[in-house]
Amino acid sequence: MNELDTERLAWVLSTLGADTLMSVVGLRDGGAPWLIEGRRASEDRAIRAVLRIADSRLGMGCPPTSRESAGMTVAARGGIPVPQVLGEQVDADEAALLIDYLPGSSAQPVTPNPTRLRTLGAIAAAIFCLTPDSVPEALLPAVEHPIPSVDFGALRAEAEPQQLFIEAERRLAEVSVDDPIGFVHGDLWSGNTLWSGEELEAVLDWDCCGHGAAGVDLGSLRCDAAMCYGLPAADHVLDGWESAAARPADSVAYWDVVAALSTPPDISWFGPAITGMTQRADLTTSILRERRDAFLADGLQRLN
Predict the structure, then answer these.
(1) Considering only the top CATH level, what class is 114-303?
(2) 80: closest CA among 126, 46, 119?
(3) How far apart are CA 15 and CA 21, in angstroms?
(4) Cα–Cα separations (whole angstroms), residue 255 to 12, 250, 272, 297, 303
(5) Where are the domains of the chain?
(6) Which pTM value belongs to this model?
(7) Is it the case that residue 2 has pLDDT exceeding 60?
(8) pLDDT at 259 over 60
């Protein structure tokens, strides 16, 4: 969506209690999510908020915004840094979620920062320990792999066959794990975080959250680290997770393979998203694909 209608903007201003619209800026390719700035005449100050837009028909039993709102509520209650939910508006085709604007950046350093990587692992462990018992199950469904709204198996079936993927699918079909189930973010990677230096300011984009094994988030973070920096970076994430959880992680190799298979075969839209959101112009699609394949091959070797 590359424009906002007047009714949606009026709702935003009303929700913010603002009298005047100052600016509307598209944060991704000139479109949603939107950074909106209004002003309250009585206080003579600007108010900034972020408007997230989703297709209300794409939710798994509920609008994606409702799932995201529920997830952030659970996260905030558990001490995870997240934006405050300011309002939600859902109609037949489109859902809107208005959240607080937080400072920070998703930009990642060109060279690996072990402190940041361990912090990511630790936050995944903290998320897994949350207890969303008071949230209806329909809002937080089962999550079996990162970005559950995408059928990556179907994407592989449509793409040119690759032996590495064929072997990975075969091995996963032969292996089963019975890991504990907890709360997971479902799309946890560096681009969905905000930082100020080495301080994690917020975890964003909770529209894939739900109940799953800890490996869903841990594998996703490890795959992201390996794609951005190479295989050794993934171990910093694991160190952070195990230190925070005070125990070894479950089925690491299995979830590494699951995470690698939860990427487009040719990296396609992942490439622009990673380079754009993390401001890593050095990460070409070919580099990301090569590192993803190396991470998958390493996971398969450990799984075997």
Answers:
(1) alpha beta
(2) 126
(3) 12
(4) 40, 9, 24, 13, 10
(5) 6-100, 114-303
(6) 0.94
(7) no
(8) yes
